[in-house]
């Protein structure tokens, strides 16, 4: 449990690191999502980590020692938050040791899970600062793409974490199946959890094609954001700021899936708009790392060929490699919310600070 003093200290450190990065070009790292394993007990049909399609050959998983060394280096770079993701995450045998090590470095630790094994590993889960549980809606909606039995396991985990007072966020992928009901919002409200949602991240940038039947059209995506804003204003615990939701309702580009590259003429043309285009700051500030050490700025760019690898290049050189990525902005709401924080948007900073002080232990 973090004391008020520690929360204040962490918030000020994050602010300081963002300013150093923004105005002085310093390489820092605010948060990282680490896939601690390549294995998963499920095979969700939309899963972006497994939809690699042979673009890149996975190396072996980072060893425990390599991961610990990475956390040592990240702590020195000012890293304050880490989420342990992964195809399996909690059933991974090293899960407890990794959580202990991350926390010993004063790095906030969240695990993202499909809900399986939460009950079996509840003592380790209890040490997390927060947990994120994936659930797409009611039983039919959740099991449609994630597989039979997933809803029940996710609900068991949500109930258990709620009973134990473990700060919980739900994450829901929105497809044609659940876009009209948004049932997961009701579950979040009932169990006092926060919720983030995302339309399918398509990895189009890396040449990967998703089944268009799963993905929302532009109009459906816009409508989703309009409804989310309405729900948020009606008190639903949606962890996106109004500011970010409004930007996505009035999204200035044709296609939410397009990654806009640096130097694109549209960026200049649209720069005078009231709601400014948030230029991507994620890059090295909050990357995602696969279990074999390959590192990407975000989920959208996962599987991009020639991405740096921490095991081969070391952390610093890999982060510098991310800084030079050619992308400028994109239409992924989860990434832009984080980006908006890294761009020090006051509305977002206020909401994130409120969430941190009230919902993270
Ligand atoms: C990659 S998973 C890893 C953690 C864990 N296996 C799970 O499913 O919760 C992290 C989150 O990404 C979501 N996700 C997977 N593929 C996605 C995609 N193509 N677009 C958007 N979200 C996706 C999952 O539903 C989950 O909430
Ligand atoms: S449970 Fe998570 S990692 Fe596993 S297949 Fe589903 S989305 Fe992917």
Determine the number of helices (DSSP H or I, runs of at least 4 residues): 15
Bound molecules: S-adenosylmethionine, iron/sulfur cluster
CATH class type = Alpha Beta
By helix and strand content, what is the structural category?
alpha/beta
Question: What would you say the CATH architecture is?
Answer: Alpha-Beta Barrel
Q: Please list the strands of the largest sheet in the order they lie side by side.
A: 6-5-4-3-2-1-8-9
CATH topology: TIM Barrel
Mean pLDDT: 87
User: How many angstroms separate the termini?
Assistant: 5 Å
Main sheet: strands, sense, barrel: 8 strands, mixed
Give me the oligomer status: single chain
> What is the number of independent domains?
1
State the CATH superfamily name. Answer: Aldolase class I
Shape: globular
Question: Would you kindly provide a written description of the structure presented here, covering whatever features stand out?
Answer:
This protein has 361 residues and is of the alpha/beta class. The chain has one domain: Alpha-Beta Barrel (TIM Barrel), CATH 3.20.20. The chain is built from 15 helices and 10 strands. α8 (218-233) runs antiparallel to α9. The termini are close together. The chain binds S-adenosylmethionine and iron/sulfur cluster. Iron/sulfur cluster is lined by residues 40, 42-44, 47, 49-50, 87, 114, 146.
Q: Outline of this structure?
A:
The protein is of the alpha/beta class and 361 residues long.
